[in-house]
Amino acid sequence: MKHVIHKEFQHFPDLANRALAGSVVYATDESFAERENLIMPHEPLFDPAEFGNKGKVYDGWETRRRRHEEIGDYDFAIVRLGIPGQIMGVVVDTAWFTGNFPPEVAVWGTCQDDLLTGRELAELPADQWFELVPRSPAQGDHQHLFEIPEGHPARRRRVTHVKLDMIPDGGIARLRVHGRPAPDPRFLAGTIDVAAMENGARVTECSNMFYSSPAQAIGLGRAVNMGGGWENARRRGEGNDHFTVELAAESTLRWVEVDTSYFVFNAPGDIRLTGITADGAEATLVPKTRVLPDTRHRFLIADAASTQRFTHVRLDVYPDGGLARLRVWGELTDKGAQDIAARW
Fold this sequence. Notes:
Shape: globular
Number of strands: 19
Mean pLDDT: 93
CATH architecture of the largest domain: Sandwich
Strand content: 35-45%
């Protein structure tokens, strides 16, 4: 299915995603369906005929029915973000929950760099949490898109954990927490991958992501199969496919890796990498070059571009074809380092 972006904030990565090392560290209850389902990368699945020992099987988080005599007013879950960041918007998806969805939801954020357990986070005083999404009505089998407005104080704060309130009980399929990564600048010294999502990079443009998003190509680690990279549709007309990455911050570049691992019969024939400066000027980093299927390729940056300062790179593939990973190694400029520190 073709990926559709509904709101501007969804252009930013889902910092809670399990593929980025997010973790659901606490839930008040998970009697019917496990809390870990909340942050799975794939879209929620549903088989109407699938039942287990506890009833209908749901691809989400589902709690038991609360009764008035029980302690507490509602259920909640706490997610440690895989990558801390500034939150732009939240998606609360109740897909497939039709008679068992919560009437209301709310989302809170906190910044806790100490290694706290789920129980310790659950016991934090209320003033340690700040509101990301106010208490809001919810519907069944519906994607609820909550954008944090420009200028809202919460949008400027760094978040390491979020708390999802499910009021009073029920089921939620997925929680997506979209934002701009705010990495610790102490770990970004020397030569680093400035195109890595965990270091603050993001995809800003793509010609085609019919099968999967190029955001996966700048994710953690190596892909484990073809589904873990970027795959576009077969091109039947003129032109070529491409995507653009906003680097972690302004950088000088040294070398790149273009990895077509697992793309055996649908890798590009050629690639080209272009650097883009803050004022929009372009420079060739890697000229149009043949690449092979199922191969890690490393290319040195062209000498003429090695001292220039870039904020974006664009990868062109000819005429189409997918790849597993793009890595761009370089050093932050003084301005780039200052920008990273400001987010932190």
